[in-house]
Structure formats: C-alpha cells, structure tokens
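Progress report, Aim 2. The chain analyzed during this reporting quarter is listed below.
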Amino acid sequence: MPDGVTVVDTAGDERVRDYFGLTDVALRRVLEPREGLFIAESAKVIARALAAGHRMRSLLLAPRWLDDLGDLVAACAAEGVPVYVAAPEVIERMTGFHLHRGALAAMHRPSLPAAAEMVRDARRVVILEDIVDHTNVGALFRSAAALGADAVLVTPRCADPLYRRSIRVSMGTVFQVPWTRLEHWPGDIELLREQGFVVAACTLGPGAVDLDDLADRPPERLALLLGSEGDGLSARTEAAADLALAIPMSGDVDSLNVAAAGAVMLWALRVR
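Predicted structure tokens for the chain:
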C-alpha cells in the first residue's frame, strides 16, 4: 500500500464512521450538519470541491482505484488527510450502496455567508422554497451555474444542497454557484427588495405575467422564486412577491418539473 493509506477490513470501523449509512436520508440530514461535514462522490466532484477551496477530512476508495487516483491519494498523504481503502463488499455494507464512481471524500462543511452579503453585487438570484427532492436541488444548481445565476438562496426547509445526491446531480456545480440558507422566510423577501431586486414568483396562479413578456424587458436585478414539487409556492410567498410569472404552455400540459421550469426561466431571463 502507498504511504498514508490504511486498509479497513470491517464495515463498522469507527475510523470511517463519516461514511456509515449514506443512503439513509433522514440520518444524514441530521448527522452531516451536526458533524460539520458533507460527502463528495467521484473523482471529478472531489476535484471541483477542492478547487473551490473545500477541505477534505478523509478519502475512501476501493483498491482498484489506487492507481487511477494516485495523484489524489498522494495529495492527501502530503496534507496529512487519512486515506482508507476497503474491499467493495465492505464499502457497500458500510455505506449502503455499491461504489462505482471511484471514491468518496468526507469534506468539512463550510460556514454559510449572510444572504445580504451574497446578493450585494448579484443581478440574477434563484430562491428555492421548500424543494425537498435532492435531485431537483442538484439539477437547479447545475442550471444556475450554466445559465448565469449569481447566487442561490434556499429556505429553511429546503433540501440540503450539500447532500451527496444533490452534489452528484449538480456535477459539482454546487461548489461553483454561491449559495446560502435563509433564516427568516418569507420575511427575507424584503431583504432582496431593499437591495433593488424585482422578486418574481414562478406560479400557475391567475394574473401571472407571461415569461415572454418579461423576457423582452427584464429587470436589471431579478430574484426568481421556485416552489416545492407538490404544492408550488406558498400563498404567503406569492403574496409577498412583486409579480407572478408563468411559462406559456401548450399541448394540454399545465406545468413542468421544477428543475425544468427553473432552467427555462433562467435561460429566458439571463443577462445579455
């Protein structure tokens, strides 16, 4: 074994407890913020996290990846970051799934900045209200990165953008787009309005402005509100917004998945 690499033979080894039960969403939702960690999966995602300044607590991989990820293993050894190697069946019992993306890294969870600081120079902001599906959160971050959003704000009950599945679906772009969690919702809408944002609630409700019309003359600073998968935005949030906004639809379809709708909105209202 290379220097700094430790072989783990049992799934219950306390040295790798950061990786226990990764498929137990309820457990991880409590454990990871409390322990100040998150899990990055795959060499590409880990590299993006490191490039964004995140720090590793440890690295876990199967023996077959030692050569392919030699540079990462060597970098861990140089920094004193523990590297653990375990047989695939041990990793599966430990984590709850078969690891086929090369590696897992336990990372130190960053401190989140204040929302006012984050949006000070922003022109396009996305707000995710109570979106509970980690796949949708990850997809929305990927769209935000690709289509020029300057920041993403998530409400107190929104799923964790640093949950493993969110990170994976985002292709690591969750490390690219500045984000933070709001504390006072929907009261924080006023914070955005004070900074000159037009706050647009993406909704199917009556009286909504057609997306094409707003795209013709978009506001200089715009915050897009996207609501939960089942019920959409809350009535309080819609009432607090400056305007309601709808995507024109056809084919007897009344709505899109929230991640798809967010991508359409961001593309149409991107800064040109």
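The mean pLDDT is 95. The first strand starts at residue 5 and ends at 7. These observations will guide the mutagenesis work planned for the next reporting period.
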